[in-house]
Amino acid sequence: MNHEDSGVAKRELPGGRSLFGITLVDAITEFSAWIAILVVAFDKGGAGAAGLAVVVQLVPAALFAPIVTAAGDRFARHLVLMSSFAIQALTAGGIAGALIADLPLVVVYLLAAAFTVASSATPAAVVSLFVHYARTPAELMQWNITRSFVRSAGILIGPLVTAIVLAVWSPSVVFLMIGIGCATTSVLIGLRLPRDDRLRSTVTASLILHDSLQGVRYVITHRHPRRVVAYIGAVEMLMGTFDVIFVAVAFEQLGRGGSASALITAAFAVGALLAATIASRRLAWQLSSLATIGALLLTVPLLALGKPTLLVAVMILVALLGAGNGFIEIGTQTLLQRSCSETMTSRAFGALDSAALVAAAVGAAATGAVIDESDLTSGLLVIGVVGVVVLVIGSIALRGSERAAAPKDEKLVQQLRSVSFLQSLPQPTLERLARSLEQRVDEPGTEFVRQGEAGEEFFVVLSGAVDIEIDGSVIDHLVAPSSFGEVALLHDDVRAATVTATETTRVAIIQQTDFLDAISRTATSHRDALHVADQYRRQPDE
């Protein structure tokens, strides 16, 4: 039982700069490696080889993504991130060595696949931490916009640096730089990123495998996460076509090499940066509306992309594509976070990664085959028309998921957060409690709990006041906002006191199972709840 202060102090994202720095490095290394591999493949075998390179990297990553991301729901996430970057450093160094030694291309492909698998752990761990720490939907949205901006900056920086390196040196130098960057980041994560605020749990290989399958099953069996993942999968299939299209435009349409391909990708990132900047000033926009705007920008420019012969004109059209992808990413990823149970966030994003990688591989392979067999302009027209129809209709379908994910009672959620040991809980946990609890209004003299009886409910006083009585003596008087009932629930014991309304009182009633499940979401909540309960149990003897 405890007295509460009204309101909740605003908190900054713990490790905020570190998390955004991780996102920046991840984007730089991912797209630098991606461009370098595509340039190597296209240079040796054309568009078909570039499409094959995409497939060889993405299919293994798609198979392992649910397992890799499931580890983030069991292991401390700072260790997951450290391991991810360490493995990326080793594989990037291996690719550089393979290119220098002129080993068969299949060796480069296999190492690139391992690099991609390891990198899939990073986004899921970061967005899971966002959900864990967010206190309001607007806060989660703002962090996602900032992440999108930082990621877009990385997508811009990576290709620009890659373009310079490829113009002066070779792809092997690109991978040497990536290896050094990933190794340094792994060390910095261990030094700067805050440790997880979560209870320890048993971890075994079989349990992680079970968790990964459970994540896939969760997305398949829950309508709204399934709908969002399917939509993002369609977007990623289109993005897969871009991997081949950008290289083909640079080599065939513009008559330039790998450096032009990198500049085109950089233009895509500039568009995404603009989208994040605009979205940051329009937080009131609906998530599904962002997806619709993005769908139009991501497809319509394709209808004209096959015509320009000037690099600047191509970059302008590609920047519009990037803006479209930026709007879609902000809207759909925020919607997926809000549609999922917080305990399933990493695994849901793992299932998303798997679906996205497969979709991108299919898109890239199909585009490579089409461009090899026909002309680039015709292929872009077909992709653009099909894309606009599928994505616009899909974005409209997301409106139902957005309505379902909206908080049912934001005021009630904030009242729950006024309880001291519930303050550190993730926003989705409190929203789930708000949806499942019972509210009632009682007259003065009503007994909520009686000393010595079994306890199965936790109470939050939303308005009014109650007396706390032990052995016939009033020992405390609580006024809203306050709470009681945690002692019996935490210690699986009978009620330690009788609680009676002293005026008309409205309470929220949370069942024991929901209460215990909620406070186990963070080590802080569990520890603070036990501390409050133990203080109250000692009070009669003091």
Describe the 3D structure:
The structure is a single chain. The chain has helices at residues 16-70, 77-100, 105-119, 121-133, 137-168, 171-192, 205-221, 223-253, 258-280, 287-299, 302-305, 311-339, 345-373, 376-405, 410-417, 427-436, 486-490, 512-519, 523-538, and strands spanning 2-3, 438-442, 447-449, 457-463, 465-470, 473-479, 482-484, 498-501, 505-511. The longest helix is centred in the N-terminal third of the chain and has 55 residues, at 16-70. The protein is 71% helix and 8% strand. 58% of the residues are buried. It is elongated and about 90 Å long. It contains 19 helices and nine strands. The two termini are 16 Å apart. The strands form two sheets. A five-stranded antiparallel sheet has the order 1-7-4-9-2. Strand 5 (465-470) and strand 6 (473-479) form a beta hairpin. Helix 5 packs antiparallel against helix 12 and helix 8 packs parallel to helix 13 (345-373). It is α+β, with helices and mostly antiparallel strands and 542 residues long. It folds into two domains: 16-195 and 203-405, MFS general substrate transporter like domains (Growth Hormone, Chain: A, Up-down Bundle); 411-541, Jelly Rolls. Residues 3-10 have low confidence and may be disordered.
